[in-house]
Amino acid sequence: MRGLTFDLDSAVERGASPPLELADGECELIEAPASFTRIAEGWAEWLVELRRLLATDGRVVVGLADPADFEALAGEPWDESRIGMTVLSALNGAVNSVVFHSEWWLRTHWGRAFEVSLEEDDGRRIAVLRGRTGMVDATDLERVDPGDERELDAARANAAYLRRQLERSDRRLRGELEEQREEMGRELMRRAFANADREWRERGPGSPAMLVAASYESTTSWKITRPLRALGRILRRR
């Protein structure tokens, strides 16, 4: 009898957590196109649960994050030896973070529960997992191999990536605050001039207040510095 096809992405979106109310070995195919690009905490517990659910001849198909996305977020080239499992802020409002995995790290950690095969599907990296015999728990999967120098290199690189992202985020937030301050100041100036204009309206068009405002925005210094202010806003967002 054919086993169940289980959609991990849908379960995670519903807020499910292991263990699930499914029998041991019930699933012939487990699909996870995006889950492990988002699960930064609890990934080992999920893998142990998927191993329990997987039929003897079943497989888990996991979508992996694109190295090109890493380069866009980290601002540096993808380096297998320095990635390991790296979590970066997406900074786009779509998701809170993106999780990246290097091949050696998957084979070292996920390989304790599964046979790991790295493939491509329509240009996207995927990991195809088949269950190994024997029992493992989350601690087994998380355990760092002390003899592999890449573990320490990846941990140091992760700290550096996080620090740079925090610095970039801080610059962006400060820039946005500066823009808001500037716009608030301009709005207060407009309102003050408008109030003054109402008081002078009976004296005819072109009141002193509105003439001062127009004169201020037409000055050479204001025109010259306007593109510089715009450029500064762009740079602060990076």
Provide a brief overview of the structure.
The chain is an alpha/beta fold and 238 residues long. It has two domains: 140 residues, Rossmann fold (3-Layer(aba) Sandwich); 67 residues.
Properties at a glance:
9 helices, Rossmann fold, alpha/beta, 238 residues, 2 domains
Q: Examine the coordinates and then state which fold CATH places here, giving the name of the CATH topology of the largest domain.
A: Rossmann fold
* Number of beta strands: 7
CATH superfamily of the largest domain: Vaccinia Virus protein VP39
Secondary-structure-based class equals alpha/beta
What level of helicity do the residues show? 40-55%
Q: What portion of residues belong to β-strands?
A: 15-25%
- The tally of domains stands at 2
CATH architectural grouping of the largest domain: 3-Layer(aba) Sandwich
Order of helices and strands: EHEHEHHEEHEEHHHH
Low-confidence stretches: none
Mean pLDDT: 82
Task: Describe the structure in your own words.
The two termini are 55 Å apart. The mean pLDDT is 82. A five-stranded mixed beta sheet has the order 1-2-3-7-6. Strands 4-5 form a two-stranded antiparallel sheet. The protein folds into two domains: 140 residues, Vaccinia Virus protein VP39 (Rossmann fold, 3-Layer(aba) Sandwich); 67 residues. By secondary structure, the protein is an alpha/beta fold. The longest helix has 52 residues. It is elongated and about 85 Å long. It is 51% helix and 19% strand.
